Amino acid sequence: MTQTFTLAALLLAASLSASAQFVGPAGEASSVSEIRSSLPFDRIVTLRGQILRQVGKELYEFRDATGSVWLDIDHKHWQGLPPVGADSKVEVYGKYVPKTLGLSKLKVISLRVLP
């Protein structure tokens, strides 16, 4: 019984450490104009630009050199970040959800302030 438990624990630990080893790209770097025109539904992207203003509880306007898009940023993504102003450069990583009717937006998975 103890050997079975030990073997199960070792297999679980090995599988957890194997999944933590991925070091490839975290999403396609893109631009606002690109995500609006050509990306398929629910595509994971990385955008770099500025958050211009807050327009709702978790809804923000984001702009890069090619245009603007709405960001849905959960409050947990702000934790540990320095203050972010309209002139701050940020990188957002998330899933773009285009809508035929309603508000198309990027659901933010992570947010970081760039130097």
UniProtKB/TrEMBL annotation:
Residues 1-20 form the signal peptide. Keywords: Signal. The keyword Signal applies. SUPFAM superfamilies: Hypothetical protein YgiW. InterPro entries: BOBF_sf, CarO-like. PANTHER family: PROTEIN YGIW. This is NirD/YgiW/YdeI family stress tolerance protein. It comes from Uliginosibacterium paludis. The lineage of its organism: Bacteria, Pseudomonadati, Pseudomonadota, Betaproteobacteria, Rhodocyclales.
